[in-house]
Hints:
- By secondary structure, the chain is α/β, with parallel strands linked by helices.
- Helices cover 26% and strands 22% of the residues.
- It has six helices and eleven strands.
- The protein has helices at residues 39-50, 63-72, 90-97, 120-133, 198-207, 226-232; strands spanning 8-12, 33-34, 37-38, 54-59, 78-83, 107-110, 139-145, 159-161, 164-166, 175-183, 211-216.
- A seven-stranded mixed sheet has the order 5-4-1-6-10-7-11, sandwiched between helices. It has a two-stranded antiparallel sheet with strand order 2-3. A two-stranded antiparallel sheet has the order 8-9.
- α2 (63-72) links the parallel β4 (54-59) and β5 (78-83).
- The model has no long low-confidence stretch (mean pLDDT 93).
Amino acid sequence: MKATKAKKAMILAAGFGKRILPLTLKCPKPLLKIGNETLLSNSLKFLELVGIEQAVINVHYLGAQIVDYINKKKFNLTINVVEEKDKILDTGGGVLNAIQYFSNEPFLILNPDTIWNSHYLEELKLMEKNFFENKKNKCSLLVVNKTKSFDKSYKGDFNLENNLIIRKDRDNLNYIYTGLQIIKPKAFSGFDAKVFSINKIWDRLIKSNELYGIESNIDFFHVSNLDIYKNLLEIKFKR
């Protein structure tokens, strides 16, 4: 049963994975395994679960391995790969480079470094309810209190105030981004830079009170560095 109103999603898979070296010298980070799944297959199966019909994946570093992996595996959704051949475009530039796939419809953006599971289904529903009921909403982020993070080194990205994302008092930010957001293509209007972080989009939306957040209550597991990855391998995750 379709759980999400959005029909399309993008998975960000172009990064170098420098914090996981030396494992990423020959293997792109999205193809590292947690249990029986790679980070990429776990993300794609999560998108299948919530009812996404089309996934766009950007690749750059060791991208041929990711393309080959997708071609060999059977996933129950349409997958389009966008290759950033000349240079990596960063998170914002990578999405803008693939924006034509999303027409004018809101879409999900997913970070495959997070260990997604079925428990996120209800939180995604809540995100979409907030998103589609508020016409001013151009982007909603799923955020989590840093106390729920497996990696205790996170200092926080944002604060939440009446479901609005704010960045006041940067020395006391309590929420971190989980890696799941829903966004309207028009949030990228006016951006003509090739290489830029998605933070540029968020900062502009924060200034206009158009960036919203939904708090996750799920323990946050994210492959942030080599030590955390090794520790995560010791945990038995349930989908």
